[in-house]
């Protein structure tokens, strides 16, 4: 099966063997990903602290 960015099935096969193909508008998908805001609230300044063994700032 092939799914769109929302997880909806856009093409699928039955039980027979074969190949399925589907075309997507890659510009529309890129625009959608930019507007999702997944990385909007990330705090890269805290990553090193989170990766330290003792949680010390600047470790």
Provide an overview of this structure.
This protein is α+β, with helices and mostly antiparallel strands. It has helices spanning 26-35, 47-51, and strands at residues 2-3, 9-11. The protein has a domain at 24-59. A hairpin with a 5-residue loop joins strand 1 (2-3) and strand 2 (9-11). The mean pLDDT is 86.
Shape: elongated
Radius of gyration in whole Å, from Cα?
A: 20 Å
Report the portion of residues in β strands: 5-15%
Helix content: 25-40%
Give the averaged pLDDT, no decimals.
86
Biggest beta sheet attributes: 2 strands, antiparallel
E-strand count: 2
Structural class: alpha+beta
Order of helices and strands: EEHH
Q: Treating each run of at least 4 consecutive H or I residues as one helix, how many helices?
A: 2
Biggest sheet, spatial arrangement of strands: 1-2
Distance between the termini: 46 Å
Low-confidence stretches: none
InterPro entries: C-N_Hydrolase_sf
Protein name: CN hydrolase domain-containing protein
What's a concise summary of this model?
By secondary structure, this protein is α+β, with helices and mostly antiparallel strands. The chain is built from two helices and two strands, in the order E-E-H-H. It has helices at 26-35, 47-51; strands spanning 2-3, 9-11.
List keywords for this structure.
59 residues; alpha+beta; two-stranded antiparallel ribbon; elongated
SSE layout and pairings?
Layout: E1 2-3, E2 9-11, H1 26-35, H2 47-51
Antiparallel strand pairs: 1-2
InterPro entries: C-N_Hydrolase_sf
Organism: Vitreoscilla massiliensis
Protein name: CN hydrolase domain-containing protein
